[in-house]
Amino acid sequence: MATTTAAPPRRKETLESAVIRFAGDSGDGMQITGSQFTNTTALFGNDIATFPDFPAEIRAPAGTLPGVSGFQIHFGAKDIFTPGDSVDVLIAMNPAALKMNLADLKKGGILVVNVDNFKETDLKKAQVAVSPLEDRSLEGYRLFPVELTKLTRAALKDLGLDAKSMDRCKNFFALGMCYWLYNRTLDATHRWLDEKFGAKPVLAEANKLAMKAGFAYCEATEAFQVTYEVPPAKLAPGVYRNLSGNTALAMGFVVAAQKAKLPLFQGSYPITPASDILHELSMYKEFGVVTFQAEDEIAAITSAIGAAYTGSLAITTTSGPGMALKGEALGLATMVELPLVVVDIQRGGPSTGLPTKTEQADLFQALFGRNSEAPVPVLAASTPGDCFWVALEASRIALKYMVPVILLSDGYLANGAEPWRIPEISELPEIPVTFRTEPAGFRPYEREPHTLARPWAVPGTPGLEHRIGGLEKQDVTGNVNYEPLNHERMVQLRAQKVAGIVQDVPDVVPAGDPDGALLIVGWGSTYGAITAALRSQRATGHRIGHVHLRHLNPLPGNLGEVLKRYKRVLVPELNMGQLVWLLRARYLVDAVSYPKVQGKPFMQAELEAKIQSLRAH
Amino acid sequence: MSATTAPAYTKKDFQTDQEVRWCPGCGDYAILSAVQQVFPELGIPREKFVVVSGIGCSSRFPYYMNTFGFHTIHGRAPAVATGIKIARPDLDVWIATGDGDALSIGGNHTIHMLRRNVGIKVLLFNNKIYGLTKGQYSPTSELGKKAKSTPYGSLDRPFNPLSLALGAEATFVARSVDVFLPHLKAVLKKAAAHKGSAFVEILQNCNIFNDGAWENLTEKELRDDHTIAVEHGQPLVFGKAKDKGIRMSGLELEVVELGKGTTEKDLIVHDERHPNPAYAFLLSRMDASPGFPTPLGVLRAVDAPIYEKQSADQLAAVAAKKGKGDLAKLLRAGDTWEVR
Q: CB distance B87–A428 less than 8 Å?
């Protein structure tokens, strides 16, 4: 009889890519677990895309279905464009997490379950009658029932922590298991723990021990016969970091202000999913960044207008409901023609809607959500890293044209992360700014002929005392004026100024085929899913192009011509069809809408199926 | 105070070429004139003044002041002004506002500006009516006010602007009257010298929609018995013959007649620097008490940390500790890796 306890020899399988999802209760630390796996994986050199998905409630009752929080990461040796349609490995910390996430696990996928949380009461909270561990419903998966709580406690028993503190470390046991499974090292997470728990070294130690125990558990038990290797991706040369959309925006604005040699002023009121921009910028005081947490959304934008008036690069950051409140002030900024960037991190709506879920349904609000004729340039970021560049571009336009600019991002970009090649300082654009200082001949609404921008004449400049405000202005002098023809001229001038920004908007160059059967037109965070679908569908031999719009107002000058090069035009959007409405109105093109409003990004497979259905016609 | 020496200005230097468009006889003219007389005396270069307003009759004020001026949107002047003052603490920022603008649509901004103690001077023109929209009752109109939108009388209790400002712990709270030019100028000068938010309620007559609203306080025959001009360090004495005073009675104020055994020594000696806003609050409540005079003058003037200064100090302290911001470091913060 062989009674050896040594671990059996294991197979190492090499994969092109893999998808892991950590799912548990809001209090289980799934977002931290996911972020740590992401960071380690990015450092290893994989391309990645992540999808944090958490409830609006901070702590819904523990163990219940509404309390389930998830973090998905797709990583690969190839280009990764989406967080992945389905999951290779699912970590389920309780029955509620299992119930909410099992449908996305691939048949034959790895399922790690914390069996300590499958007691009668846990099942009841998840509204499960019979334990899925016993009813054979998990037979199609490679199930690994692990006593995560018990094993974590055993690993930490010598630290003198109470049970609650020990149980808080069980997510790191699961993280350790995943590190083992994908042949990752623990160093980066060790460093993070040391920094995070600098003041409480025992907690750093506890999490390290739990992680090590998870790693060792896999090594010692015979449960796992295979480990996986996902080799580094072939990214463009350079120095990289892992970057989320909101952090990218914050950095982008700091850089924009530095390049423009202006102080940065942010007026903001906390709102999900935009608050992280305020959190980030409030840390950058050494760059002269002033963050002002205002009493409400209206004060957030109007304080920013005040700062812009005095010569700051002024921004305000919010989400859809906050945008609605800022509408009147945006009209004021349009009337007084001051530079301002308004950031809308879109979420599901209307009203409070789905605060933590993603959507692209504020396009109309951005384009049209003000009283009367108040055109505003609108830009949208397409990936987390792109948020950095769009922040720079939005700032540049605002300052060059003396105009408020709306920058659209969304919950998916805000919280999602990707490897980002860090630009050299020399790659960053210059943002020249001129203040009016000469009193002779100063007229507050005399325009620079090329941009139609009025002069920026800030308080404190001797001889330039003048008055501005929300009442209609007389052309050139800026005095209050109610004459019919002057009003019409001013409405036209404001419109021409915004339309004229097209001179700064690069022509679109379609990805994929430059003409042919189908053009996909997208904007914002659908970039990754459309790109992935385009690649797979072109590989089947069809001529498809993809245009992804960064500038939504004004639209690129050659867009109308590009639309005509294809037999059909498809517009996938996370709304009821807003861009498609605009394209149809503007270019009289019979574009096909593909709307989705589930609070979730597009899956690659959904887009592929839609493309195929159009080909069949 | 600014160290820069300002040129010698006159009232004319603060007048604009814009035709003033208030109704003939409006109290706003007197206020404009008082401000244009006070600004030249402050020793501040003209280009440092910014006059901000919201919407309403009073909010046309910036167009008539030859300074930097910003006529913003309804109720939002305190928020715009806050942005201006935080971004540029060297500017001298004034708000012209009304009872509707500051206390109704902009009530939220008003209280938050005051609690933060942002260095802004607020001139609240209180005429107890909506003028620009032609005669609806306002949040300071007396209960039961019959106006355009309340033909059977208003139902909501009015705000007392001073009580509200004191409730927000404003550090400078004062009141004057449009037609009391020397008093108004003196109060404005004290407001100008205050560091932090200065809140000045100016009782102002709207001769079109609410004429005579302050008659009791302004008519020669009535005013001495109906108002009390409080002065720091002076006992609270009022009346035509200076024969009445205010003293404490338990937790309440009491009007007493001087003589007959009561002397000035029994009266409250006004202390505008009293750290507890409850004292000034008690004075502000005299308005609503029958038999009591309406207080005029500076009710409260105390020193407290100033928001824009704290904001600037924090930036400097962090920069001193971390060193000046370095973009290359910012971009490379956290874990990085190199792809060759």
A: no
